[in-house]
Write a structure and sequence with these properties.
This protein is α/β, with parallel strands linked by helices. It folds into two domains: 3-130, no CATH class; 140-246, Trna Endonuclease, Chain: A, domain 1 (3-Layer(aba) Sandwich), CATH 3.40.1350. Helices cover 50% and strands 11% of the residues. It has eleven helices and five strands. The chain has helices spanning 3-12, 17-26, 30-53, 56-64, 69-75, 80-89, 95-103, 111-123, 129-152, 160-163, 198-216; strands at 157-159, 173-181, 184-192, 219-223, 239-243. Strands 1-2-3-4-5 form a five-stranded mixed beta sheet. The longest helix is centred in the N-terminal third of the chain and has 24 residues, at 30-53. The chain is elongated. Mean pLDDT is 92; it is low at 266-279.
């Protein structure tokens, strides 16, 4: 995708409702739009997180005086689930208790709290349990596609899980024997169930791709939902960027299901960092 087209999509994905609008009127894949919308929300949330948290007492006051979690979050232009967390922290509810309540809303005894947590979960398709579960599932889907392709090619490999005991930085796949792309031998592959815009790729270069290159040599990163292909990036020497078309033609898309219709279940009680919150 060209950067101009991507930037227009990014700028027009201001609300969750824009996903359906752009898909229905311009023919874009809904899961791709959800991916880009999620990236936009996470970046804005990360940028503004502590400024909003400084207003937590005001948010809690508004809630105590009748505004709902969703109404308060909209007024502060902030994700509803994280707004609810900040408000309830002011009421001495810790993070573990908060995520436990979200995981079993029907058992929350207070009627108002039960209703408003359900409404916040429906409104927030990024930080709700359903939203974060969707991101985990998408990541596992990408890794499964990659491993299926490798097995089909007869290529042996070690997974990230296999490598963790030996290395601090671990790609999704380390090959026993390299294969050739772009006139170089590739020893590792990193799977990203996201869209590779310049911001995302630069972040991955610093946190993952450079360390992988130092440890293992040349490699490949796949962005299953595509990447901006007309922007020069300072990729480490020997790293190639590909999309789903490298592995299958035509690519089999991720099945889109509206996030708030899914049942969220993500391991861990101390939640809120799955999508690089305040990284």
């Amino acid at each position: 995708m060209k950067y101009k087209e991507y930037k227009e999509l990014y700028d027009h994905l201001a609300t969750a409702e824009d996903i359906d609008f752009l898909a229905e009127n311009f023919g874009y894949d809904k899961e791709l739009l959800l991916v880009i919308y999620t990236q936009r929300v996470v970046r804005d949330t990360t940028k503004r997180f502590y400024r909003v948290k400084d207003q937590a007492k005001k948010m809690a006051w508004a809630w105590q005086h009748g505004e709902s979690f969703v109404e308060v979050a909209r007024r502060f232009d902030f994700p509803a689930i994280l707004g609810a967390l900040m408000i309830l922290e002011q009421r001495k509810v810790n993070r573990k208790q908060f995520w436990k309540m979200l995981g079993d809303i029907d058992r929350v005894q207070d009627r108002r709290l039960r209703t408003e947590l359900a409404d916040a979960s429906k409104a927030d398709i990024v930080y709700s349990l359903e939203g974060t579960a969707r991101q985990y599932a998408r990541g596992r889907w990408g890794e499964a596609k990659l491993q299926g392709w490798l097995k089909g090619k007869g290529l042996e490999y070690r997974t990230e899980k296999d490598l963790r005991a030996e290395y601090d930085k671990t790609p999704d796949v380390l090959l026993h024997k390299p294969f050739d792309i772009d006139s170089s031998k590739k020893y590792w592959i990193e799977s990203k169930a996201t869209f590779g815009d310049p911001y995302e790729i630069k972040r991955h270069i610093r946190k993952q791709l450079e360390p992988y290159t130092d440890l293992f040599g040349d490699g490949v990163v796949v962005y299953w939902f595509g990447f901006v292909d007309d922007v020069e990036l300072a990729l480490p020497e020997g790293v190639s960027v590909v999309d789903a078309n490298f592995f299958e033609t035509p690519p089999v898309p991720y099945e889109y299901v509206p996030v708030n219709l899914e049942k969220g279940s993500v391991p861990g009680g101390d939640r809120g960092t799955e999508v690089d919150l305040a990284n």
